[in-house]
Amino acid sequence: MVWIDLKRVPVALTIAGSDSGGGAGIQADLKTFAALGVHGTVAITSITAQNTREVRAVQDVSVDVIKAQIEAVVSDIGVDAAKTGMLHTSEIIEAVSEEISRYKIPLVVDPVMIAKSGAPLLKEDAVGSLIRRLLPVAKVVTPNAREAEVLAGVRIGSVEDARRAAKLIADMGPEGVIVKGGHMEGSESIDILFYQGDFIELRAPRLESRNTHGTGCSFSAAITAELAKGKDIREAFRVAKDLVTHAIMYGIPVGKGHGPLNPMASLYNESERYATLMRVVEAVRILEGIEDARKIAPEVGINVAMSLPYARDSHDVAAVPGRIHLVGRKLKATSYPEFGASDHLARYILTSRLYDREIRAAINIAYSDENLERLASMGLKVSWYDRREEPGEVKAREGATIPWGVRVAVERAGRVPDAIFHRGDWGKEPMIVLLGRDAVSLAEVVRSIA
Ligand SMILES: Cc1ncc(COP(=O)(O)OP(=O)(O)O)c(N)n1
Ligand SMILES: Cc1ncsc1CCOP(=O)(O)O
After folding, report:
1. Domains of the chain by residue range
2. 326-333: long-range contacts (C-beta < 8 A, 24 or more apart)?
């Protein structure tokens, strides 16, 4: 949940370049500030003609206008924390350092050097100015491994090297140094914070995505937003790692190169919570209204589940705790839907979404040839997996059967089918699981089958 202080909305300032593609620079920063409930202000340093593939042109803003933008914002609105992004030349770095030093604003420095597309965004001869003029006035510096190599003058090939570099950079003045591991090898993305003599390491599974443009910008903007709220560096670090991981998971697939990450993913998720829960409530109402549900109710009960649009795990999936059971001929839900109440259906949905992001809902019904025939007669695509063919190493891993089964069924069908069934195994009841975009539409399909 984003807690917003309505009496005094925190204000953050980004001193950075504009990205015409809307993925990095001030555009990413403003989205990130907004997602974290902070009012964003800007001082544009350069205008770039940029898209997901390349930087075509750069026009630097005059240092007088850069300083005037900072002055205008600070003198009237007030700034709780600021960050820097693209500072193209020594002249710009020196002007920003001078202006920021006039006010006692906590400053986050993202030492932007090279765009994801490979274009230099910091002139080579300006690295010295960054080290001499900006790092001493910074509260936090957030280099990626390649930028940290340039600043610290050491090669980074391991977490140990990253720790050494963080210490060397801390000697240049900032209170906290975060070396990001996004550009390094390995199955995890490991970021390291060096602060007050201690290291904190945050890990996240490395996500395979092309849509990561603006990652560094959003990360440093999230740190800035949290500092603007008065949060401690360590807490800001956790929020930023979490926001960026979610934003990469749901990167925006636009353009032919690296599309932008989506810093709004968490915010959109939160905004859909109530509507999603209400779709499950409505679906339950439809199921409870079925006159004779005996042919569709499995022994273990029915559940109906629906995920948030930017779901990360089963906590972002709403369903009925205790499921929906047959009482006489009718179905009765044991309780009111909640997030995190599904185990099986959540896994069906979350795995299906790896193939098709539109899939958000699932309902399980009893397996029978008759029910399969009804689905086929409705023109729905049905696929299946056989639990007896499950490889030993999958069986040995808790919770791995359904993701494996869904993959098998999707590959067999060539797309996410409308229903997946299995014929059971020792202690496992055979089952049909319907998949789709919306819990209510699926409940209507179940009503037709019944
Ligand atoms: C105007 C502008 N500022 C910063 C960048 C860097 O963004 P990107 O290329 O995506 O690299 P990271 O954000 O991941 O460091 C840019 N391209 N343009
Ligand atoms: C046992 C079972 N297998 C597939 S769906 C299902 C029932 C619903 O399970 P959950 O309530 O965990 O989503």
Report:
1. 11-270, 272-449
2. 326/293, 326/294, 326/297, 326/301, 329/291, 329/292, 329/293, 329/294, 330/288, 330/290, 330/291, 330/292, 330/293, 331/287, 331/288, 331/290, 331/293, 331/297, 331/302, 332/288, 333/284, 333/287, 333/288
Q: Check if 180 is active-site.
A: yes
215 catalytic residue (yes or no): yes
| 110 Cα nearest atom in ligand 1 | 15
Q: How far is the centre of ligand 1, averaged over its atoms, from the C-alpha of 118 (Å)?
A: 10
Q: Which ligand is nearest to the CA of 367?
A: 2
Architecture of domain 272-449: 3-Layer(aba) Sandwich (3.40)
Residue nearest to atom 3 of ligand 2 (CA): 344
Q: What is the pTM of this model?
A: 0.92
What is the chain's pLDDT, residue by residue, as a tens digit (450 residues)?
666 677 789 999 999 999 999 999 999 999 999 999 999 999 999 999 999 999 999 999 999 999 999 999 999 999 999 999 999 999 999 999 999 999 989 999 999 999 888 889 999 899 999 999 999 999 999 999 999 999 999 999 999 999 999 999 999 999 999 999 866 777 888 999 999 999 999 999 888 889 999 999 999 999 999 999 999 999 999 999 999 999 999 999 999 999 999 999 999 999 999 999 999 999 999 999 999 999 999 999 999 999 999 999 999 999 999 999 999 999 999 999 999 999 999 999 999 999 999 999 999 999 999 999 999 999 999 999 999 999 999 888 999 999 999 999 999 999 999 999 999 988 899 999 999 999 999 999 999 999
| Residue from 22, 139, 217, 405 carrying the catalytic annotation | 217
- CATH number for the domain whose boundaries are 11-270: 3.40.1190.20
Ligand 1 pocket test, pick from 92, 121, 212, 244 with the greatest ligand atom count within 8 Å of Cβ, gives 121
Alpha carbon dihedral 86, 89, 92, 98, in 10-degree steps, equals 110
Ligand nearest to the CA of 15: 1
